[in-house]
Amino acid sequence: EKATLRVQHHAPPLPNPPAAAEIFRTGESEEPAVFLEQEVYFAGRALSVRFERIPGPWNVFSEEEVQRANDAIDQHLELVEERTDPTLRNTREKTPLSGDGVSGRQDLGGMLGWKKPHCDPFRRILCDSRLVPYYHELVGVGYRLDHQPLVILQEKGSEGFCMHGGTIDCTSGQYNQFLAYGCHNGKLVNSLLGVSVQLSDHNEGDGGFMIVRGSHKSNFRMPQSMVDGENYNEHIYQPATKKGDVIIFSEGTVHGAQAWNADHQRRIALFRFAPAFVSYGRAYYPRWNEECYEDMSAEEAAVLEPPYSTRLDRPLLSGEDASVEFIQRKTEKKDHDAKVFKTPYF
After folding, report:
1. How confident is the model at residue 35 (pLDDT cuts 50, 70, 90)?
2. Cα 181–chain centre separation
3. Is 271 helix (H, G, I), strand (E, B) or coil?
4. I need a labelling partner for 173 at 20 to 30 A (CA). Which of 28, 73, 259, 344 fits?
């Protein structure tokens, strides 16, 4: 299905800016949905921007797809690493985000390199035709995987993650070009995009992902008590989601995670994507783990390309089926560069 862009206009004054994280469900449907966090300002007026699907059946990831992902995780639980070392904890001790002070977040990686069929639910996130229009709109054609994908698991009482990120770093107040959000000539630009696939329900009050709505436009650092979840909680939003939902958010928006309060285990699969020519992580260098490429489709492999311009024979995903195409650099230019640089690319 194609994604369309709907812009809602809110006239000033705006003492409470409109939500920068929206829930997308059609009518009374409770089918899995896509959440998109964005908000832009134009001529002093706030525009809350969101994607809305063309009417029709909408399953981001069905119950069966989620079950396959969870089954694959269950087969690899021996690889889970819990963050119990004090130097690995993501919250300040004895703050609302630190949970019971003992249980740590559990991390699991390597999903793209698991043997088939266990890798399939996670490789699909790279280039699923239902998600590619969002990737193209928010990071551009030629988008690339930037971080190693990560499955996060949390048991009741485990710590969350203090507020972090932001175009203006929320703790230092410095400009963060690696996470930056911008809007230029009506085009949204993100240096790093978070895509969080929900593999368990996150009900209101359960904890988990939280965000400061509109903070991608902030120009100042946050008070430390807000970073630690002690004050100003009226500005912090924890979206309620169902398994199969997807949260898409700019890393230029300040975000974190609340301690997990529910009896059931929290599970998400977290991916980060960047524009073709941008890199934050370095797992791609000199190549991603070799097992990632085993039996990988051309579409999936295109998303694993290292950072370089789309002008330089980069494989691109295009069309409704997200198939691979190339924008060919002229042979004459490559021949000239080969004479000058001993390589067809400058």
Report:
1. low
2. 13
3. strand
4. 259
105-162: per-residue pLDDT in tens?
Answer: 999 999 999 999 999 999 999 999 999 999 999 999 999 999 999 999 999 999 999 9
Please, is 251 exposed, middle or buried when counting C-beta atoms within 10 Å of its C-beta (0-12, 13-18, 19+)?
buried
User: What ranges in the chain are assigned the alpha helix state H?
Assistant: 63-74, 120-127, 132-139, 224-227, 298-303, 331-341
State both tokens at 168. Answer: 């203006």
Between CA 249 and CA 225 the distance in angstroms is: 23
pLDDT band at 280, cuts 50/70/90? very high
What's the maximum distance between 2 C-alpha atoms anywhere in the chain? 65
Report which residue type is found at 191: S
Q: What is the DSSP string of 226-263?
A: HHTTSS-GGGEE---B-TT-EEEEETTS-EEEEPP-SS
Q: What is 105-152 written as a DSSP string?
A: -EEE--GGGSPTTTTHHHHHHHH-TTTHHHHHHHH-TT-EE-S--EEE
Distance CA 42, CA 97 (A): 35
Answer whether 0.70 is exceeded by the pTM. Answer: yes
63: pLDDT strictly greater than 70: yes
253 closest CA partner among 164, 149, 134, 185: 164
Nearest to 268 by CA among 70, 48, 104, 26: 70
Q: Are strands 193-198 and 266-274 parallel, antiparallel or unpaired?
A: antiparallel
Query: What burial class does residue 182 get, using C-beta atoms within 10 Å of its C-beta: 0-12 exposed, 13-18 middle, 19+ buried?
Result: middle
Question: Which of these, 97, 96, 227, 215, lies nearest to 164 by C-alpha position?
Answer: 227
